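Hey team,

Filing this mostly as a record. A colleague (T.K.) asked me to run one chain through the structure pipeline before their review meeting, and I want the input and output archived in the tracker in case anyone asks later how it was produced. No errors, nothing strange. Just documentation.

Input sequence:
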Amino acid sequence: MGRKKIILSAILLLLISFFYISNSVHASAEEKDNTIVKGVFIDEVDVSGMTREQAKAAVSDFVDGLKNKGVAIMVGKEVVYTTMGDLGYQMEENDNIDTALALGKSGNLIKRYKDMKDIEQGSIIYPITFIYDETKIKNIVSVDVSAYNIAPVDATITRKNGKFVYGDHVVGSKVDVDATVKAVTDAIDLWNRQDILVDAVVEDDLPVYTKDVVEQCNTVLGTYTTQYADSAQGRAANLANGARLINNTVLYPGDEFSAYKILTPFTEENGYFVAGAYLQGKVIDSVGGGACQVTTTLYNAVLQAELEVVERQPHSMTISYVDLSRDAAIAGTYKDFKFKNNTDVPILVEATTKDRTITFKLWGKETRDTEKRKVKYETKVLSETPPPKEVITKDPTQPETYRKVTQSAHTGYKAELYKVVYENGVEVSRTLVNKSNYSAAPKYTIVGTKKVEDKKDDTDKTDKTDTSKDIKDEEPPVSDEPLDPAAAETESQSSTLNNRSNPEGQVQADIWIDNLEQGFED
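Output structure:
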């Protein structure tokens, strides 16, 4: 019996020890199942002995480090800095961590044995595939890199002392976007995981209008002259000033000329004087009066050059220096004269004033048959409207013998302008150019009503001066329609500067005209 007890006790002790060892081994194996075996790498990251969370964090830090690597794109001496992350560089989705965790722990005994033997032979590396966003790369090149483009400069042209002066063009440079994007993507594909330096692909950018092109602008396409011999000094100065502002304007093919943009503002600071202008069918004093003769003369030169007229409007009443329908008014922002260079060569506008005449010449490349083909413009009057009844204003401060005409009457008209083309002396076409309406306006007269004694007094001499001569043909530079109160007030204030009643202002206008005309002579 004693021997049996000893054997049973030994068996029991062995069972207890086995149970304890078995539980310990199971616990150790379970712990190892949650970590990656030694010798495993995910790309450059050693994940040996790491849990899933630890490996995920380590790989994420590694990828973030790559995203922060710098990319420098050189544009000449300039540099555009960015990062791999800004280019959309990122890790493609994968199951590397799960695969690493299962290494040596999954499959049958033979597979597990093989996995462990592979590790003994050397490290196991699971690679990461990276991707980038080519759209982001192209956007950076198109915007940031291309910001260093150097724009080309067209050749210049001007008239000086009666001769042409042609300036050289300047070649610019621009980034070839597609080629530069390819250079960046190639650098990424071959990346050694250090900061990247790429040279942008830059090419010459030639201007559209090189010197040989602008030198073709050498022929007068159209010219026209009007005279203003009877105008007051302020008005004459305004015409000379308008010519000064427009002279040597160059229009490249497709460019549009706007008289308003070039001639305004109508201020003394911009070289203008007070002169007569139209307002609500009456003549008033306004800074810049007479500017419409500038635009009208230019309009007729444009017609002769057969350039494209974009905008033209008639005066509110008739003028004296051109035929009906051959005028072009400028008033505020709603009456402008515009034309377009519809040729293939730059157009130069030359303006001169001399001996109380204003002349415009439009230079360009002549492509018309000037020998066999001729162009004329004809005005056709459709109807006339007689002036309304004379408007008489009584002045009790003047004697009954006093009578002063402040504005002559204007007949109203409806007219059309036609372009007539002749070839070999035979009319081949007749085209309507414009339709124009001019309002009729009455004569405005001031008469005295003050009773006087029969005894003659030198102070009661009749003043029959007609002041309409200097201002009858003028259009307002600001408006020929009703002005708002603020504008009307401005007109009232500016009238005190009228050089016709201000000797000093007249002298200044004379000097201004002399200086301008000397400067515009060929």
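Quick notes for T.K.: The mean pLDDT is 83. The first strand starts at residue 40 and ends at 42.
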